[in-house]
Specification:
The chain is mainly beta. The protein has one helix and nine strands; from the N terminus they run H-E-E-E-E-E-E-E-E-E. The protein has one helix at about 5-20; strands spanning about 25-30, 35-45, 50-55, 55-65, 65-70, 75-80, 85, 90-95, 100-109. This is Cupin 2 barrel domain-containing protein.
Length: about 110
């Protein structure tokens, strides 16, 4: 069994995102491209985003810290610390309304 502190990893990623030119930082904490399930911690500075992209499968975003907006087409959902958002099976984007860290969970189909 492997255990890690998401809070500690998130703190590290927020620090890295604050100095990165992209304003973001990410680390896969479980799984990968060769597995069905993948969990990735993502830190985004306020005003930064994950540009519009397709969903590779079923997915959720859990907000560990901050506030984000997930948008698809004309619809958007705001989420803050402690919220879980189901990612729609459509092109979507995530914008950081404030410095944020999220846990992205995807099960590829």
């Amino acid at each position: 069994m492997k255990k890690l502190s998401l809070i500690a990893v998130a703190r590290h990623l927020r620090s890295h995102a604050a100095t990165a030119s992209s304003g973001r930082s990410a680390e896969t904490v479980y799984g990968g491209h060769d597995q069905v399930l993948r969990q990735t911690l993502i830190a985004l500075q306020q005003g930064r985003s994950m540009g519009e992209h397709d969903s590779p499968g079923e997915g959720t975003v859990y907000v560990l810290h901050g506030r984000i907006r997930l948008s698809t087409g004309d619809t958007s959902w705001d989420a803050r610390t402690g919220d879980l958002v189901i990612i729609p099976r459509a092109r979507h984007r995530i914008d950081a309304c404030e410095d944020s860290t999220v846990l992205l969970t995807v099960a590829k189909t």
